[in-house]
Structures are given as structure tokens and as C-alpha cells.
Amino acid sequence: MVERRHWFSDMLPHLILTIGVGILAFPVWLAVVGSTWDAGTIANGTMPLYPGPYAVENYTRALGHGGRSSGEPVGMLMLNSFVMALAIALGKIAISMISAYAVVYFRFPFRMAAFWLIFITLMLPVEVRIYPTYQVVAQVGLLDTYAGLAVPLIASATATLLFRQFFMTIPPELVEASKIDGAGPLKFFKDTVLPLSITTMAALFVIQFIYGWNQYLWPLLITTRPDMQTIVVGIKKLLVTQDALTEWQIAMTTAVLAMLPPVLVVLVMQKLFVRGLVETEK
Amino acid sequence: MAVVTLQNVRKVYAGDIEAVKGVSLDIPDGHLCVLVGPSGCGKSTLLRMVAGLETITSGSVAIGGREVNEVEPADRDIAMVFQNYALYPHMSVYDNIAYGLRNRRTPKDEIDRRVQEAARILAIEPFLNRKPRALSGGQRQRVAMGRAIVRKPQVFLFDEPLSNLDAKLRVQMRVEIKKLQRALGVTSIYVTHDQVEAMTLSDKLVVMNAGRVEQVGAPSEVYRRPATRFVATFIGSPPMNLLDGVVEGEGRVRVDGAVLDVSDMRAGLQPGHLVEVGIRPEDLEIVGSASNSVSLPIDFVEELGATQLFYGALGGQPFVVQAGTGVVPADAKSLGLRIAAERIHVFDRESGQRLGRVAETAAA
Amino acid sequence: MDRRTVFNNRLLPYLLLAPQLAVTLVFFYWPASQAAWMSFRLEDAFGLTTEFVGLENFQVLLRDPSYYGAMVNTVVFSGSVAFLSLSLALLLAVMADKQIRGATAYRTLLVWPYAVAPAIAGVFWLFMFQPSLGMIGRTLRGMGVDWNPLLNGGDAMLLVILAATWKQISYNFLFFLAGLQSIPKSLIEAAAIDGARPTRRFWTIVFPMLSPTTFFLLVVNIVYVFFDTFGIIDAITRGGPAKATETLVYKVYNDGRLGGDLGGSAAQSVILMAIVIALTAIQFRYVEKKVTY
């Protein structure tokens, strides 16, 4: 549009956005800086705004040994987080995809009942029913296992709805053409639905990987053994209530390491991420 | 190749919606049968029942003498071309065409031979490695045809295959489909709502309305002797003019004060019987202002190039006349019209049935 | 009339649904119904038997001043975070929507905090505002502000609000930007021809057109603050000092961790479930199109 513009009104958006970017980035920058100094500098409150010389030392120690107060190497915690996030993302995609397929491509007694049973779980986030769920997991003997970390979180109405939505956009004529071409329900799934769903699956994977990696309350409750903990939970052990004992440089190193994988996923797969986010919510 | 026989086929959807109300039809071997009618008339449902995509509520469908009511679509030995082509978007053209054969465990070299042959016939050889989205509408249409012919089925089913193409391409593909069907000699059922497509393609034309067959016959026969008022107005463009009339006596009908002689009218109708008289816009003779003619004041004129359409009203009912360009002087305010007795169609005003000879009609 | 072609198969659909239904029944319905059941029962002193006590657990809970405290905290917390993160995100989205150069780069630089775990976000903010060594915390104290989130409840609440807002801005920004970009440009142009200046155009055209997005985000934000901020609170304040930042969800966790009163804890869960169901019901209007057959 032609509109008389003042140089200031041209610069204003850039100014505001730059401030916004700065405010969002500042806490992370401080954390990165914190992970490169020694305990003394931080404890004195004299840490400067630029990185120090202790990066290699801090990261090697954190990954290999962990802090004094927790004693678990962060490398192993990251592996646990990775296994949990992967299991949740893949498990969710698998079970919600086939259940959505059943609801869209078949007509059978109790179909709507099954759909509503799944749909209602939208209203029951795990935090609400945390102790009863904990008891169930304890009863079936899944405490301190990867299965216990992942399985209770993989039933997801959101993912089922997303796949259902997507399947309904596949032209019904493709089913008909497949039937005439001699493909049954499993063959149609494998030859047509699966290849067409790749982008949807990838978008969902990005969102669910982040969701799984960032879980906090659930792993906090059901892991008692230190070697089964995830990195996000592990950081709590590093923050000792008595501040003098907190090894801040290791805590910040761990925090940066915990933040890195999901943030990289978002930055590298930004398109899929945005799509996954918008589609799971809308 | 096979004969297709439908016997009293009905389709009732949940909620007692009767989409097809008892259709019987014989399609001889190698014929192209066109089902035509307005949307919602049940023509697509009927086709889909032949394909096996809809269950048959009652009646029977037989292909080549074998009843197929309970046979899966894949085992009916049919092939179908869809309106939106229904090409698998993630497969190459080659794979799209080969998919049905692969599912039937046809040997690899046989598949290749047949795909190449189909591609040659349809002139799509250069595109075999492309994905459907890289093709134009006409090319996609050809791929869909290729998928059908490669299977060498007993019956081709076409569900409005040209509706998504632009007008020019539609005419071109229409001719190609007709040629291909002739060359292969495969019995075909073709569904369309376009009466021009129906007239030009069919060996056998089936006009449907509200779940019933209104008329079956050769296209020229249906055009010349429409069995019902519905067929009369549906087939032909611009549609047939209809005027209210009353039987005056044997072979004579009074319309808007004038008495018309009709050569094709059932004998024994009582004077005073309420009828409708149908006259095609192109059947009128323009006679200037000679005596023994009806005068039609011209409201406006539409230029079609080779012909002109004159719009007016007779006895309060709209009336259209088609004449070659130049026949009527440009400044004419009205037309003098005369109509030959054998060009007048008479329909019962109440039932809409033709009161005259009809060549072949299905029991509707 | 549903004309979608389907496959005829009796057993297969049930097999396909089985995994999800099994997980849902075992880990959703079973625990949820146990919570509901327990909320009406009381354990004896040895935890051996339980007896039906009707609404007593709920009555005890509602007479408990600390429960009210948690409720007030939750309302203050979620209200502030929703207001702050929505308005800041809207400001940024409007700026990024102005067809300026580098808009996609700004988007990239603004979306990543979504991926930071709440607990990690909490650690970052604690590191900044820690009174004795945090860069900003020390600066505040140096300026004579009596800043101490470890001892002062108000400061603690402010800090968790800031951390939670920080993390939620990206999410709101993405949805606001998508909402802004879906407003037809011709509408803005028509308003310009009608003589509306940019500010007026925003409040009379753009903002009303965004209201579905805003409403949707409002509900999502409240749900976010209710549940997802557990990690932030646990990392920064652990509900303290003196329960000043204990929200309803944190209280369920805290009371349960100390053990004991199963019935009371279950009653808390049931009330939370009721709140979530109410929120979801409001949001349902927007999900409805997904479930109408």
C-alpha cells in the first residue's frame, strides 16, 4: 500500500522485534556464559557478560561425571531422555495412526464409543491424575523402567484427532481406486496412506519429541534410581537448597545441554514444527 | 468382454433415502451405454453398484452372465475412471498404471509390456516417470484411462471423467474416449450430467431422473421421440419449449387460441384432455408475416455465431426460437412462425408421459 | 449421509484400536476412576481399610485455608501469565506481520523458547535473579531494592510469572502471526480506502478478526499455566517461600509426596479434573468441527 511513511515508523518494527529477540535470548546467553566460568567467579557474583575459559572443563565434567550433589553423568541422563522422547514420539504416532485408520476407514459396532473413549482423554492431562497413575504403574511393576516412563504418555487423543483429520482429506476415490486395483485394507494402508502421511508424521514427531524430552513431573515421580532419571529431572538435584553448595557452573552446563536437543530440532525443522504445532491445536 | 445385465436394482440408504428405485437394463457386449441425468438422479450410485463400491439393496447385477452382487470390486473384472482421476499422488505414472497388475501378481515383464502398450496408445510415454502433480489435467485423465485399459477388463466404468477438464479439452477427450472404446470393443458404462456428452458418446442412452429410468434408446431416437416431458426438456439445448394445450379432437390440439395439427398423437383422447405441447427451438419455420402463422414478439436476441436465439413469450409462457444467422432481419420486432405437424410432441399434462409413439422404454 | 467408502472387515478395526484403547483404559480411566472412588473414602490410621465418607474429604479440603491460598496463587499466576504473554506476543506478531524485511528471520529467532523445558526455563531465570549471585538480582539489590525471591513471597511469585511468560511468548506469537496472516489483505485495503489510519485499522478491523485466535489462546494459556508450569515452580521456588507460589497442581504433588491422606489427595485431583473439563468444554466450541461427523 502507498502510505506516507516516516523513517521512524519504518524502523519501529525492527526496534521492537530486536528488543523482543534480545529479551528472549538474554537468559539463555547468561546460562551459556555461566557454563564457561568456574564456581568461584559465579559465586562471587562477578561473572562478566562474555564466555570464560572453563567451557571444556565444565562440559567434560558434566557429561562424564555430573555434579557433586547428584553424581550421575549427564551423558547417561541425556541418553535416558532421548530413549523416552523417542519412545513417546514413535509410540504415539504408531498407535494413534492405526486407531485413526480404524475409525475413518471401517464401520463397526461401538465405533463412536471407541472414538469418544479416546477423545475424552483430551481432558485428563497426566498432572491431574498423577498419583493414581503412579499407583497403577507401580502395581504393574513399571517403576524405574523405560516402559514406565513412556507408555502412560503415548495414548494421545490429540494425535488420533490429527490423523483422523488428515485421513478425511485423502480423497475417497483413492480408496475406491485401490479396491478396484485389488488392494485390501492393510495393503491400502501400506501402499497409499502411509506414504501420504509422511509429512504429517514428521510434523507430529517434532512436536512429540519435544513434549517427551521436556517431561518433568512424570519422570520425577516414577524414577527412583538415579541412573533411570532424565536430564530435565536431573537438574533439580543440582540445585541444592543451600545455595552455597550449588555448583552453578555444572547446573548451567547441564541446563544448556538439556535445552540443546529440542531447540535444535525446532530450529532445523522449523517448517515441520510450525505445521505440527498449528495442526495439533487447531 | 461381456454383457451387463441389471435387474430391478434398488439402493436404499440409511434413513430410508431411496437413491435408485428399481432399474433394469441390458447392455450388449461392446456397447457404450451412457447414464445421463441431473445431479442426485441416482446415476452415479447405479454405476458404483456395478463397480461394487456400493452394496445393492435388492435386485441383481450380472457381468458376463455371472451375478456379482456379493463379489469384491477387485474380482468383478472391471476398471473405473473417476471424475477427479484418483491417481495415487505419491506414485509415478508408471506405478499408477502398474499397481493393479502388481496386486494381481502379474509377471514383471508382462506388466512392463502392458504398461508400455497402454502408454503408447494414450501417448503418455514421455511422462511415465513423473508424479501425477507434474501433469496437466488432460494428461492425468490419460493416465487414469491407462490404469483402466492396462487391466484388459470386461467392463469399463466412467464416472463423469471429463467434468474437471476445460471446455476445449473436454471435446477432444470425448472423441478420444469414443475412438478408444470402439478400438478395444470393451463394454462400457459412462455417467455424465452433460447431455451433449451423452448424445455424442452413447450407443445406448439412458436418461435417469429421481432414481428411475425415464427412457432408454439410441441417442437420436431419444432426441426425436422423448418418452416424457422430463426427457424432452433435459435432452437438447436450448431446451424444448413447452406450452399448455387442450385436446380439440383427433390429431388436433388448441394452444393459446390457435389450433395445431399433430401427426403423432395417441388416438382416442377425449376433447378437453389437458396436455402440454413440446416444440424444439430449431424445429420452427420462420415465415415472415405470412398467414396461417403465429406471431412471436421478440424480447431479446442471443448471438451464437452460426445461429441466433430469439426469446419471447407465447400465451404467457416463455418461448425460444433458433434460426440461422441472417434468416431474420436485424431490425425485426417479431417473428412469424409455422410448425410442421410431425415436429410437435404432446405430453400428458398430469403424468408428463408422451402421448404418442415411443421406440423403446424401460419399465419405469 | 456418510458416503465415504469403507472396508468390510469384522476383526481388523478392533485390532487396530486395541493398543490405544488398552493404554487409555489402563493409564487414563483406571487411575481417574480410582481417584474419583478414593475421594469419597477415608483410610484408617494403619492404612489397612477404607470407609465411605461421602463428601467429607471435599468439605475438609474446602475448609483448609492453605487450599484457598493455592487457589488464589493459581488465579494470580495464570491471570498474569496469560495477560503478559498474550499482549507481548501480539505486539511482536503485529510488528513481524508488517511485511518488513527479515520477517522470517525474526520468526526463527522468536519461536525457539517453545522448545525449552519449563524446568530448564526456571533454572535460567533463577540464575539471573538469584539475590546473591544472579546478574540482575545483584544489580537490583545494588540499587537498594530489597529483592529476594528465596525469602520474599511476592518476589518469588513475580519471578515464576516472568519465567512462565518468557516461555509462552513463542507459542502465542506463532498463533497470532498465523492469525494475522490469514486476514485478507483486501479487508485492510478497503479500510484504508475508507480512510482509517493504521492504529484505527488495527483496533476496528484486525483485532476483532483475531478474536477467535485470542480466545483460543486464552484457554490454552490458562491450561498451560495450570499444568505445564509445574517444572518452573519446582525449579525456582518449590512452592515456597511459605507456600507463596504453591498452585493447585503443585499442592497435589506436595501433599501426595508427604504421603498420608489418600482421600484428600484424591479429592484435590477430582476438583482439578472438574476445572480442566470445564475449560475444555469452553474450548470445545473450537474443537467441535473436528468431531462432528
UniProtKB/TrEMBL annotation, chain A:
Organism ancestry: Bacteria, Pseudomonadati, Pseudomonadota, Alphaproteobacteria, Hyphomicrobiales
Bilayer disposition of the protein: Multi-pass membrane protein
Domain ABC transmembrane type-1: 78-269
Alphabetic keyword roster: Cell inner membrane, Cell membrane, Membrane, Transmembrane, Transmembrane helix, Transport
Top-rank taxon, per record: Bacteria
Annotated organism of origin: Alsobacter ponti
Family listed: Belongs to the binding-protein-dependent transport system permease family.
Complex formation: The complex is composed of two ATP-binding proteins (UgpC), two transmembrane proteins (UgpA and UgpE) and a solute-binding protein (UgpB).
SUPFAM superfamilies according to UniProt: MetI-like
Residues that span the membrane, as ranges: 12-32, 82-106, 113-134, 146-167, 188-211, 248-269
Coiled coil: none
Pfam families: BPD_transp_1 (PF00528)
Gene from which this protein is expressed: ugpE
Function per UniProt: Part of the ABC transporter complex UgpBAEC involved in sn-glycerol-3-phosphate (G3P) import. Probably responsible for the translocation of the substrate across the membrane.
Protein name according to UniProt: sn-glycerol-3-phosphate transport system permease protein UgpE
Primary localization: membrane
Localization, UniProt: Cell inner membrane; Cell membrane
TrEMBL record, chain B:
Natural source organism: Alsobacter ponti
GO MF annotations, alphabetized: ATP binding
Keywords tagged on the record: ATP-binding, Cell inner membrane, Cell membrane, Membrane, Nucleotide-binding, Sugar transport, Translocase, Transport
Similarity section: Belongs to the ABC transporter superfamily.
InterPro entries reported for this sequence: AAA+_ATPase, ABC_transporter-like_ATP-bd, ABC_transporter-like_CS, ABC_transpr_MalK-like, ABC_transpr_MalK/UgpC-like, Mo/tungstate-bd_C_term_dom, NA-bd_OB-fold, OB_MalK-like
Keyword Secreted: no
All residue ranges annotated as the ABC transporter domain in the record: 4-235
Name of the featured protein: Sn-glycerol-3-phosphate import ATP-binding protein UgpC
Pfam assignment, any one: OB_MalK
Gene3D superfamilies cross-referenced by the UniProt entry: 2.40.50.100, Nucleic acid-binding proteins, P-loop containing nucleotide triphosphate hydrolases
Domain of life: Bacteria
UniProtKB/TrEMBL annotation, chain C:
CDD domains: TM_PBP2
Keyword terms, alphabetized: Cell inner membrane, Cell membrane, Membrane, Transmembrane, Transmembrane helix, Transport
Localization terms from the record: Cell inner membrane; Cell membrane
Keyword Transcription regulation appears in the UniProt entry: no
InterPro entries: MetI-like, MetI-like_sf, UgpAE/MalFG_permease
Domain ABC transmembrane type-1: 71-283
Protein's UniProt keywords contain Ligase: no
Pfam families named in the record: BPD_transp_1
Domain of life of the source: Bacteria
Family designation: Belongs to the binding-protein-dependent transport system permease family.
Assembly notes: The complex is composed of two ATP-binding proteins (UgpC), two transmembrane proteins (UgpA and UgpE) and a solute-binding protein (UgpB).
Biological role stated in the UniProt entry: Part of the ABC transporter complex UgpBAEC involved in sn-glycerol-3-phosphate (G3P) import. Probably responsible for the translocation of the substrate across the membrane.
Protein name, per record: sn-glycerol-3-phosphate transport system permease protein UgpA
Organism name: Alsobacter ponti
